[in-house]
Amino acid sequence: MWRNSKKWNNRVTRRPQRKSEKSANRDGLFRGFDRLKIKLRAKHLKRHELIGLEVKVVSSTCRDCIGIHGKVIDESMKMFKIETQKGIKMIPKVGNIFEFKVEGKEIRVNGEDIAYRPEDRIKKVKEW
Length: 128
What we know:
By secondary structure, this protein is mainly beta.
């Protein structure tokens, strides 16, 4: 009965329903490190969240992968999903050396060192 009422005819997700409610601020998939007040340090990069960082493939066993650069939009145990100017590329971690931009520095990370599930990498990766 309430569905057909004039009171609820303009219900849309993430929009305030009453004047007292505030709208949900969901601008995108990734909102950045500022939202969580986390300071990303170069020395903790291997153990940190890599989604949202700028990355470049410096060295690879596959010649086609060398030079691909963009933003990491997703990560699995063995792959990075990188958004480039030409589209989304799936790059394997093993066999590649990646260069991440953190704090104005470029840090190289071997793919074998971070070839874990993102949630397990915190426990398994050893500091350099």
